[in-house]
Amino acid sequence: MNDFRKATRIGVIGGRAGDKQTLETARQVGELIARAGAVLVCGGLGGVMAAAAAGARKADGLTVGILPGSDPAEANTHIDVPIATGLGYTRNSLVAMNSDALVAVDGGYGTLSEIAYGNIYGKPVVGLGTWKIKGVVVAGSPEKAVELALEAAKRPGR
């Protein structure tokens, strides 16, 4: 049995909706995270979050959803550990805090807030088709994004 307390935790952040390509990218990211033995952390709802969690589950990974509402049943069906917060968008802070690195896939202002929290907390942020701003390392593929996130998460001082 894995000791998930010691596992690297990679947060996948992105919108509640997305086009077919965005969702496929998120699914691939989730699958690659699980194949690497890392835990996937996300906001637990639909869109990018559900696609990434589905990918992780396909590869027998562990998924954690930090939910904005107060009902764990709100989590998408691919979440193993739903954490209800009752905090609304403020829960984005907890997604960033509970990740060793973040991969942003597309997304809007909610994703931007998670990127900001990631930077505030000193968490590396890798982006795929998302905000091209200071503090986001741009990756050209799901494979490169996960590789960069895993490397950054394991740097000394992390």
Labels describing this entry:
seven-stranded parallel sheet; 158 residues; 5 helices; alpha/beta; 36% helix; Rossmann fold
Question: What's the total number of strands?
Answer: 7
CATH structural fold name: Rossmann fold
The major pleated sheet works out as:
7 strands, parallel
Euclidean distance between termini CA atoms: 24 Å
Element layout with pairings:
Layout: E1 9-14, H1 20-35, E2 39-42, H2 48-58, E3 63-67, E4 81-84, H3 92-97, E5 101-105, H4 109-120, E6 125-128, E7 137-138, H5 142-153
Helix pairs in contact: 1-2, 1-5
Describe it:
By secondary structure, this protein is of the alpha/beta class. It has a single domain (about 10-150), classed as 3-Layer(aba) Sandwich (Rossmann fold). It is about 35% helix and about 20% strand. It is built from five helices and seven strands, in the order βαβαββαβαββα. It has a seven-stranded parallel beta sheet with strand order 4-3-2-1-5-6-7, sandwiched between helices. Strand 5, helix 4 and strand 6 (about 125-130) form a beta-alpha-beta unit. Helix 1 runs parallel beside helix 2. The protein is globular, with a radius of gyration of 13 Å. The chain starts with 8 loop residues before the first strand and ends in a 5-residue tail after the last helix. About 50% of the residues are buried. The mean pLDDT is about 95.
Task: Tell me briefly what this model is.
By secondary structure, the protein is an alpha/beta fold.
